[in-house]
Design goal:
The chain is an alpha/beta fold. Helices cover 46% and strands 11% of the residues. It has 2 domains: 9-19 and 106-228, HAD superfamily/HAD-like (Rossmann fold, 3-Layer(aba) Sandwich), CATH 3.40.50; 21-104, DNA polymerase, domain 1. Helix 9 (189-197) links the parallel strand 4 (182-186) and strand 5. Helix 1 (21-35) crosses helix 2, helix 2 packs antiparallel against helix 3 (67-81) and helix 3 (67-81) crosses helix 4 (88-101).
């Protein structure tokens, strides 16, 4: 599929694309609630928290809330839905512990290393991420995939978030590449796929649940991607 486009550079999203965010996040919360001695049904909490977290990340991407509002709001709203409430000092302490524990668990999606091993000899590989810079750096390092990537573009460093075209243009400049020779691979249709398309990049939608989008190349698992390059 991409073999006929003279592709030189492949850009990956990190969370939900290579790094298994849900699994690692759940493990972090088990540690956090144990540390802070909070008795809670964690599977039930996660069922409530995960969609709220996604909503807050969309607001954060759209520049409608700050980093601190995201960290506080997602916890406050999840607890409120479960009929629980904590002082802001406790919420901030939980949020801080969560960020500390999150990059300590580093489960990758099946096929991550095999795909990166397959691509690295023939392409320059890069990361473009909206995640918090201090955490994303540790995720890459602790999961031992950092050496695969020539550049890592983080939204906090650039000052804008995907799908803003400026972050893709910044990443392309860092990679010394051009849109027509580059592919963006990510799990978020709006942020990764449509954002990259808007600057002229080729795109691949990593959709584990098989959601299709007209005119968009879709892969349901990472190893499917090998056949496209």
């Amino acid at each position: 599929m991409f073999k006929h486009h003279s592709i030189t550079d492949i850009f990956f999203d990190l969370d939900h694309t290579l790094w298994d965010f849900e699994k690692n996040s759940a493990l972090a919360f088990y540690k956090v609630f144990e540390l802070h001695k909070i008795e809670i049904d964690i599977p039930l909490f996660l069922d409530v928290y995960e969609p709220i977290n996604m909503q807050y990340w969309k607001l954060y991407r759209d520049e409608e809330i700050t980093k601190q509002q995201l960290r506080r709001g997602r916890l406050n709203d999840a607890f409120a839905k479960l009929g629980m409430a904590f002082p802001i000092e406790i919420i901030d302490s939980l949020a801080k512990s969560y960020i500390e524990y999150l990059p300590l668990n580093n489960h990758l999606f099946p096929g991550t290393n095999e795909l990166l091993d397959y691509l690295k000899p023939n392409y320059k590989l890069h990361i473009i991420t909206n995640g918090f810079e201090e955490v994303q750096t540790l995720k890459l390092r602790n999961s031992k995939i950092e050496p695969y990537f020539q550049t890592v573009t983080n939204s906090e460093r650039v000052g804008v978030k995907k799908p803003n075209p400026l972050i893709f243009q910044y990443a392309l400049k860092q990679a010394n590449s051009t849109p027509d020779k580059s592919v963006m691979i990510g799990d978020n249709l709006e942020a990764d796929v449509l954002g990259a398309k808007a600057v002229g990049m080729h795109t691949l939608f990593f959709s584990q649940n098989g959601v299709q989008e007209e005119g968009v190349i879709v892969a349901k698992n990472l190893l499917e991607i090998k056949s496209l390059f």
